[in-house]
Amino acid sequence: MLKIAHHPMYSHPLPAGHRFPMLKYELIPAQLKYEGVVNEANFFEPQILTDEETILLTHDSQYWKRLKTLTLSYHEERRIGFPLSEQLVERELRICQGTIDSALYAMQFGVSFNSAGGTHHAGSDWGEGFCLLNDQAVAANYLVYNKIASSVLIIDLDVHQGNGTAEIFDGHKAVFTFSMHGEKNFPFRKENSDLDIGLKDHIGDEEYLTILAENLQKAIELSAPDMIFYQAGVDVLSTDKLGKLSLSKEACKQRDFLVLEKCKNLGLPVQVSMGGGYSPDIRDIVDAHCNTYKVANELYF
Asked: Which residues are the signal sequence here (predicted)?
């Protein structure tokens, strides 16, 4: 069964002017249910992650203290891009727990989703770009620390480099980071992933998919993983106002197929978090994200 972490009561802990980036997290599950791809039985609502030891496997203790007590500096809060609140921190903790739960479901069913997450700009001691805590890093460290997985590969295909993920796992032998992103896009100060592929602006479908196929294989060979995390941002679309790439919706779907088919054929469980998407028409974002679920459902179930 396809299991999906959903956060229905925690989608909009923000003032109205900041809500557009969050809106898709309600629309995607609604669209999937409307099309009959999933039903209520596919969804679970994560609890708040309360185990501070799990958080501190990934994030600096002083940063976590400032975050939970809402005492980040003005510059730290500005770097995140959201006004900090208790409700927003709780939402991030639910996202992290959802990705841990989703990873465990992936080990049971082959693939599982968090309908939010992909907060890859959060580093060990900073938040950035709408990311406070790094959900896939938290989950990867949880699996390794508890000896549930011994070798993890994080595949990040958001248009923006997974700089926080790269920083967290710099020198970490059990977790291999692969980021394929716009070279001239945010963040302008890149961190070093184990495998970074910087793409030129306006790259098209065929070239993108060729580069991905080659480097996906390379990342798997180099990491020899027994668990995969996939950050499936749809800001690679040509319609995205922040992306600078030129992918069609069909190529974005083919991207997901390449990743998920490879995982399935190799018998590697894969946890998927949704990442970014900033097309002016929310339908483009929702359609592209829904395609990721549809590909997984068709391949696995």
From this structure: none
